[in-house]
Design goal:
The protein is of the alpha/beta class. It has eight helices and seven strands; from the N terminus they run E-H-E-H-E-H-E-H-E-H-E-H-E-H-H. A seven-stranded parallel beta sheet has the order 1-2-3-4-5-6-7. Helix 1 packs across helix 2. The two termini are 18 Å apart. The relative contact order is 0.11. The model has no long low-confidence stretch (mean pLDDT 92).
Length: 183
């Protein structure tokens, strides 16, 4: 299944920015999506995803349901963030295309909350047929164990954003994933 393209995705996630700014950012990335083959995914905002030409939207627990998004944007690919097996089953029933499961490891973005761990990821892999992207405290050295536990892929925010060299950090994640595929 081609989920998020062969080359991955750039996820526009800006909870605190005005919609117009999020649209401008997504619209500016449209050409890169076409040029690189890397998908553009907009967080939460189906309207911005549609008008910017993004290939997908990632819904959160505060978003409309995948079924509602599918009704207004039938051609848009839809991801759903999940934090439990019940969330995953509901997303599958609502016809999401993939799951983003987190947080798997301890992360500064959820202080004091332990990661859900590899067991959670294994349970998700058997609970629904949807591909699952692992997020939350993920480092390049975790990629192999996450894929072995059932992850289709991984997502990183602070592992790239907070790195001294973001390009090198992104390359390390991609290299870890490619090593598993023999690329």
């Amino acid at each position: 299944m081609d989920v998020l393209g062969e080359l991955g995705a750039v996820h526009v996630r800006a909870h605190h920015l005005p919609t117009a700014w999020v649209y401008e950012l997504a619209d500016a990335l449209r050409e890169e999506q076409t040029r690189t083959g890397c998908w553009l995914v907009v967080n939460d905002r189906v309207d911005v995803a549609l008008t910017s030409g993004a290939r997908a939207v990632q819904l959160t627990s505060r978003s409309m349901t995948a079924a509602d998004a599918r009704a207004i944007a039938p051609a848009l690919r839809i991801g759903a963030s999940v934090h439990s097996i019940a969330d995953a089953r509901a997303a599958a029933a609502a016809r999401a295309d993939w799951l983003v499961a987190g947080h798997i490891f301890e992360t500064a973005s959820h202080p004091g909350a332990p990661g859900r761990g590899l067991r959670f990821l294994r349970e998700l892999a058997t609970a629904t047929p949807l591909p699952c992207i692992a997020i939350g405290g993920v480092r390049p050295e975790h990629v192999a164990e996450l894929v072995a536990a059932g992850a289709y892929g991984v997502a990183a925010i602070s592992g790239i954003w907070d790195a001294d060299d973001a390009e090198r950090a992104a390359s390390e994640y991609l290299s870890a994933y490619d090593a598993l595929r023999g690329s």
